[in-house]
């Protein structure tokens, strides 16, 4: 971690307290699965929100996105009982691989408590007098609910996945593992570029020559891969398995990508031409100059 000892300690204490609060709710509040895990997830989020407000830095929440899904997967794996062991083991392993990689990426490049994601300040500023509510619901609780929805296919695998490991599972493995690989390569290329870039420069090589946001493409692929595992385990429950990945896609394509592109257009000379040439999300061969982009 890039922060000093006190800052690192604050992060560790915050997440230890959050997990403790979640565990208390999970094992003492009498709710049926998966609502017991949802209640625990919300309780843990509220603890992180308290630390965010105390330190006036909502980036306390940044690691939450990747810390909680592996713990949910492990809990549901232990509680699963009759789940098909190959599918349950593979899904749990892939979620942990994704979570460890993404959390490590955050920890290595975390800027300390002196740094906060610029989007959080923008959300609070736009909310005006309702900034605290925007912080609670928009920055903390909404992403928690969205990620939980994206994790429901993992619950389906553990609770309903008694059928044999099949072709759709194999496709899900390829999609999920490939997505993790793409996101990893994109992050490594971005960090290598950032270490040597000049002011106003932006990455246009590697995966970033074919997609303006290949890291987002990899992230979305992970959630769609989990959805495929859910369909393989419980096809009759598609109506609550698909919305998680669909909501993730809507968030990235309708909010995150336009917001990032708008900021880059304002701050980076040449980005407009890059935006015309390169696909927004799906890696595709660069377009010839003058051809209108489709995203």
UniProtKB/TrEMBL annotation:
Report keywords, A-Z: Membrane, Transmembrane, Transmembrane helix
Identify the InterPro entries for this entry: UstE-like
Query: Which positions, given as ranges, span the membrane?
Result: 12-29, 35-52, 132-158, 216-234
Superkingdom in the source lineage: Bacteria
User: Which Gene Ontology cellular component terms are annotated?
Assistant: membrane
Membrane recorded as keyword = yes
Q: Which residues form the signal peptide?
A: none
Question: Which Pfam families does UniProt cross-reference here?
Answer: DUF1295
Q: Which PANTHER family match?
A: 3-OXO-5-ALPHA-STEROID 4-DEHYDROGENASE (PTHR32251), 3-OXO-5-ALPHA-STEROID 4-DEHYDROGENASE (DUF1295) (PTHR32251:SF23)
- Please give the name of this protein: Steroid 5-alpha reductase C-terminal domain-containing protein
């Amino acid at each position: 971690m890039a922060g000093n000892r006190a800052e690192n300690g604050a992060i560790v204490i915050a997440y230890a307290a959050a997990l403790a609060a979640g565990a208390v709710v999970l094992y003492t509040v009498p709710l049926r699965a998966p609502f017991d895990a949802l209640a625990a997830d919300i309780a843990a989020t509220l603890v992180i929100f308290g630390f965010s407000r105390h330190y006036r830095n909502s980036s306390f929440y940044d690691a939450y996105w990747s810390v909680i899904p592996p713990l949910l997967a492990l809990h549901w794996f232990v509680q699963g009982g009759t789940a098909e062991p190959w599918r349950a083991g593979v899904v749990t392993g892939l979620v942990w691989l994704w979570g460890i990689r993404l959390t490590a990426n955050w920890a290595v490049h975390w800027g300390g408590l002196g740094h906060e994601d610029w989007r959080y300040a923008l959300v609070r500023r736009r909310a005006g007098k309702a900034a605290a509510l925007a912080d609670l619901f928009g920055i903390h609780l909404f992403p928690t609910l969205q990620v939980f929805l994206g994790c429901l296919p993992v619950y389906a695998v553990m609770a309903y996945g008694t059928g044999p490991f099949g072709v759709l599972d194999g496709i899900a493995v390829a999609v999920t593992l490939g997505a993790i690989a793409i996101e990893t390569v994109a992050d490594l290329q971005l960090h290598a570029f950032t270490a040597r870039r000049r002011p106003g420069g932006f990455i246009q090589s590697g995966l970033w020559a074919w997609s303006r946001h290949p890291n987002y493409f990899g992230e979305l692929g992970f959630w769609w891969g989990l959805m495929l595992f859910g369909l393989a385990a419980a096809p009759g429950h598609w109506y609550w398995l698909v919305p998680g990945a669909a909501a993730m896609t809507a968030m990235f394509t309708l909010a995150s990508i336009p917001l990032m592109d708008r900021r880059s257009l304002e701050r980076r000379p040449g980005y407009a031409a890059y935006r015309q040439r390169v696909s927004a999300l799906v890696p595709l061969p660069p377009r010839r100059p003058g051809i209108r982009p489709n995203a």
